[in-house]
## 1
Amino acid sequence: MLTRRWTTWVIAVLLCTVTLFAQESRNEASKNPYDLPDALMPLWDSLSIKQKAAQLIMVYMSPAEFLVKNEFGGVLVMKSHLNKKDNFIHNLTQANAGLRIPLLVASDQEGGRVNRIGGISEKWKHAPSAYEMRSMETDSVRAIARSIGSELKALGINLNLAPVLDPALDHRNKKSFMEESHRSWDKDSTSGEKVAAFVQGMKDNGIVCAAKHFPGYDSWTNSDHQIAISASPLAKIQRNVGLFKAQSDIIPVTMMSSVRFIRISNRPAVFDSRIVRMAREMSPETVILTDDLWGVSLRAWISGMDRATGKTYPTKDFKKLIRIAVMAGNDMFMITYPKKAEEMVNYLERLAKYNSTYRKRIEESAARILKMKYKAGMLEL
């Protein structure tokens, strides 16, 4: 009888211990549901949902006062912003001085035709394109990237929207738009090591890279200006994704394409959850970045038009665009119209306050962005 009572008591104690342990685990998970590093938790817990939503926005470079007021997560820098180098650096310094969370300062310094630092000095006037670099020795690629990265760092830019991993050949085996533009790194079996050398050269100076345009831009239409369609079969799309996947361990940001891959979906890739999920599956911590959401092709698709131009755009359509971009699984939203960036933050805040699904999605993305900034050494805590 005593043995039976003793056994029952032991079992009860064990069950109680297991229950308490499970409860503690649930409590810890509820405190840190997005697996943030311990060092980030005080900052995370202090942020309002609006401040978290603001981290999702990458706005066209704007005056420091505007950036500080809205606490955006990032800015997009174009060649025109660098025409007055000293003014640019001063404005950026002022912005970061007023922000608790430093900006992701992004520019697409690809080289060749897309050469944002080309006007800074004669040295960079003819920065080599991807087409040129991919035929160089690996050490030379890294040295060039390191040198360009040093210039970007001096400017305060910390995110290079490159390399372009779009295919050199379309599904008909003809040169793609990106290949004709000398922007693609896709050449042959050596492409991976050349891309890695470019990325590492940037990293040598603390510059993070973004791979684009997932799952591989192979349309001949410029999706910045009009709806672009790809008829590539799934097997070709999966082949195009291969180069992205091979670099996913060293490139923490992936930019989505605005092209419609009609063999998968009638939606632009950036708005399709299945295609965004393909990018996410490469690495759970990847920050998924949109291309410009103010682009005429994306706004036209939302509104069911052939083309959307100008700054006049229906509010209901803009809100729909935001909701679709969020629920597709994107983390960061690029927009080149600053006034609309401010509206976007306010609308995301309202969505989060009144709908738990949107709140969870916004917090997931904010956490990924903060983790990426932290791992890249952009956050000093």
## 2
Amino acid sequence: MGDRLKGKVAIVTGAGRGLGRSHALALAAEGAAIVVNDLGVASDGSGTDQSPAQQVANEIKKAGGDAIASYGNVTKLEDCQKTVQEAVDKWGRVDILINNAGVLRDRMVFNMSAEEWDIVIKTHLYGHFNCIRAVASQMRQQRGGRIVNTSSEAGLGNLGQANYASAKEGIVGLTRTVARDLGRYGIICNAIRPRAGTRMTLNEAVQEAWTKSGGAGLGAAAGETIEEYLPPPEFVSPFVVFLCTDEAAKANINGRTFLVVGGKVSLYSEPDLIKTITKDWRKDGPWTLDELIARVPKELAQGLVNPSPPKKEK
């Protein structure tokens, strides 16, 4: 075990399996005490099971670390507050929050139910907010803390995941704003878009899509295997630990989003205006439809590619 996070206390949500488990073990290996938070639901959010969280806590303690299991539901603010209080009661502080808990309810947008939309938004977007809201007061009192949120490449647009993509891209905006709200108190907030093989990504639908397209439909390189495209979670966690260190703060890393996959870490740019058309609105008033028809295709839309053009009828 290392000691870069010795004396720190971390809450990791969704830590019973997959990425969360890997993050919890990696943080513990650097000396942090861990609250292993997991409701133990299935990948679609159904059911509960306390054993995954307890198993990870036991694993950390067996390796010489310190951990407790917590079973709070991140969709409920009061549960998140209770989880924070469990950490404070046990160790007197909370230094790190890793927001990782998530569920999937994939369906094409024209078939998606309100329930399928709600549970994904609640778990991911509300879950991130609830945990941040619950821990913010404690971190402000301590005048410091680290928050790592979990977005996804799916937030850039992914077939059949309107709910998940919306939540994950909302998390990016949340990250930017939390960094600004809490930065003055020494609290750093960043986000990752991880790509890894877990029960949520190596599911039947992904396996079927891979078989049909050889991975091309998922953006894989030619000849790349699904195992190469989706490496184990352990390849993501070192960067999550890095974001929790003093070195990351000294490098002014705050409010940023990173892709983390295999041996690659990439910093995403912030959205920029790339083309502009203007008119003198004070003199000539608002745009007319004729003006927009004449100028937008040639000046703003030139070179754009439709990501999903209509299929030609056979």
